[in-house]
Amino acid sequence: MKFINIFTLILVIVGGLNWGLVGLFSFDLVAAIFGAGSGLARTVYILVGLSAAWQIIPLFSGMGSGEFAAGQNR
After folding, report:
1. H-assigned helices in the chain
2. Which of 7, 40, 47, 53 could pair covalently with 34 via S-S, beta carbons 3.0-4.6 A apart?
3. Those residues with Cβ within 8 angstroms of residue 68's Cβ, 6 or more apart along the chain or in another chain
């Protein structure tokens, strides 16, 4: 797996966990670490969003190669 795919997947997981914390406890870990509304927090949010967009590429390439159909009974 390419480094960029692993890196972006990690950022998507971090973003998902952060949203889970926001939803469950109204606690924004990124804002707590970097400061609410700070440039660094905004950068993390932007990187997570771009990572999610990047992860669309492996999703569709996996669908096109039949990778998702491998576990289905035909």
Report:
1. 3-25, 29-34, 39-54, 56-64
2. 40
3. 62
73: DSSP letter? -
Structure tokens at 45: 């949010």
- The CA–CA distances, whole Å, from 67 to 2, 34, 51, 52, 71 equal 17, 39, 22, 20, 8
Q: Model-level pTM? A: 0.77
How many whole angstroms separate alpha carbon 67 and alpha carbon 74?
A: 14
Structural tokens at position 7: 């890196």
- Assess whether pLDDT exceeds 90 at residue 64: no
